[in-house]
From TrEMBL:
Protein name: isochorismate synthase
Domain Chorismate-utilising enzyme C-terminal intervals: 162-416
Its EC number(s): 5.4.4.2
Keyword terms, alphabetized: Isomerase
Molecular function, one GO term: isochorismate synthase activity
GO process annotations (BP): salicylic acid biosynthetic process
Sequence similarity: Belongs to the isochorismate synthase family.
Organism: Nocardioides marmoriginsengisoli
Catalytic activity: chorismate = isochorismate
First-tier enzyme category under EC: isomerase
Coiled-coil portions: none
């Protein structure tokens, strides 16, 4: 790895050596994570956790995806890999998280030093190092993570009332024919008494939001219900969400609400834009595709969504990695809008905040380019606060169409803060 793309800042230029071995079930993967440099991508207890940094690259700007793909090609081409399992996620892998917007676009790919993965009833450990690998570590459950202590929430960049006015402005511009749909988000700031030990919210998100992908990459964590793209041995899949209704906590009422959502023309329209944008971006890579005609309702503890699982076959002649597919799909109408360019310009004009890596692709990739990238929703970014405290920035957004009502959209955004908000609670 002598030459690196200009938009990339790598940490390791050495040749990597990776070795994966099968191990006995060590119990819940999240319980194995140490406090220092943990990474995670898990759903229903399966997936990947990792710790330490064997190599990483930071990229930025409009070239952030291309620069990361180039770096990964170089790293994986020069690596020596011994993998006794050869299942998705074993062998050399990286985890990554990408900014929503081109500017500043700060993004990261990380190759952990240790990865523990689970798929079905198989569990493995991968140890990755420079030129030589250490023996696999003992896998033992770590003590309960440190609690955040008292947590105080405050408005972020734009307060609730001001945000309603921004939504109203978007509705007006949609009705004036400028665009069809735009996704607008806001942030909340949580101040935690102690610096955040990210394993605290991760454990809670992993058990409360089993239908979601619980993730952490370099300070961005959450539990997303939306899979931007999975590439696995020539098959691509994407779970598209758009159209939301809040749950009441009363099962019978929620079922009636689910039926209302499935018939709501406003939500079906919003959903249709999102499905079309994903299908159109995947089509050039696929020989055949399955796009269901109508969505199903995905039930989460806080909200219900209209959901469509899109699938396609990528021929051997198409060598696009899952990250390139994610880059082609980003930003889908689920987090940008329709038409994409007009919506993205409107977001930066009126939203009033930098999204950072919220609503960008987050996930993992192996040396063959297979892997999974979700959309970083129901997420937050954390760092140090003043005087030994912690600071967490939570994000939530909503698709705005012609019939959107600002007050209901604000309530919907509040409901989307709930997963991370609740996961920070408890002392
Ligand atoms: C933008 C978010 O969610 C997206 C917007 C949705 C909607 O407007 O109905 C639903 C799911 C997501 O695609 C978010 O959670 O922040």
């Amino acid at each position: 790895m002598t030459s690196t793309p200009s938009a990339a800042t790598p940490t390791s230029l050495g040749r990597l050596v990776a070795r994966s071995i099968e191990v006995a079930d060590p119990g819940p993967l999240l319980d194995l994570l140490p406090e220092d440099a943990p990474t995670a991508w898990l759903r229903r207890g399966e997936g990947i956790v990792g710790w330490g940094v064997a190599a990483s690259v930071r990229t930025s700007g409009p070239e952030r995806f291309d620069a990361a793909v180039d770096w990964w090609h170089q790293v994986s081409a020069s690596a020596v890999v011994r993998d006794e399992l050869a299942v998705p996620g074993s062998g050399l892998i990286c985890l990554g998280s990408f900014a929503f917007a081109d500017d500043p676009g700060d993004s990261v790919l990380i190759v952990p030093k240790v990865v523990v993965g689970r798929r079905g009833d198989r569990t493995w450990v991968t140890v990755i190092g420079d030129d030589e690998v250490s023996p696999p570590p003992d896998l033992v459950a770590q003590p309960e993570p440190r609690a955040p202590g008292e947590v105080v929430f405050a408005d972020g960049s734009v307060g609730g009332t001001a945000w309603e006015a921004v939504v109203a402005q978007a509705v007006q511009r949609i009705n004036a024919g400028e665009l069809e749909k735009v996704v607008l988000a806001r942030d909340l700031i949580a101040s935690t008494e102690a610096p955040l030990d990210v394993r605290w919210p991760l454990r809670r998100l992993g058990s409360e939001y089993e239908m979601c992908w619980t993730f952490h990459v370099d300070g961005l964590f959450g539990a997303t219900p939306e899979l931007l793209v999975r590439r696995e041995r020539g098959l691509v899949t994407s779970r598209v969400l758009a159209g939301t209704i809040r749950r009441t906590g009363d099962d019978e009422r929620d079922l009636a609400l689910a039926a209302t959502l499935a018939r709501s023309s406003k939500d079906l329209e919003e959903h249709e834009y999102a499905v079309r944008s994903v299908a159109d971006s995947l089509a050039p890579h696929c020989t055949s595709m399955n796009v269901p005609e109508s969505p199903f309702v995905l039930h989460l503890p806080n909200v219900m969504h209209l959901a469509t699982d899109v699938a396609g076959v990528v021929p051997d002649t198409d060598s696009s990695t899952v990250l390139e597919l994610a880059a082609a799909l980003h930003p889908s109408a689920a987090v940008g809008g329709t038409p994409t360019d007009v919506a993205v310009a409107m977001i930066s004009e009126i939203e009033g905040m930098d999204r950072g890596r919220y609503a960008g692709p987050v996930g993992w990739m192996d040396a063959s380019g297979d892997g999974e990238f979700g959309i970083a929703l129901r997420s937050a970014e954390y760092g140090p606060g003043p005087n030994g405290t912690g600071r967490v920035r939570l994000f939530a957004g909503c698709g705005i169409v012609a019939e959107s009502d600002p007050e209901s959209e604000l309530a919907e955004a509040q409901a989307k803060f709930v997963p991370v908000r609740d996961a920070l609670a408890g002392r």
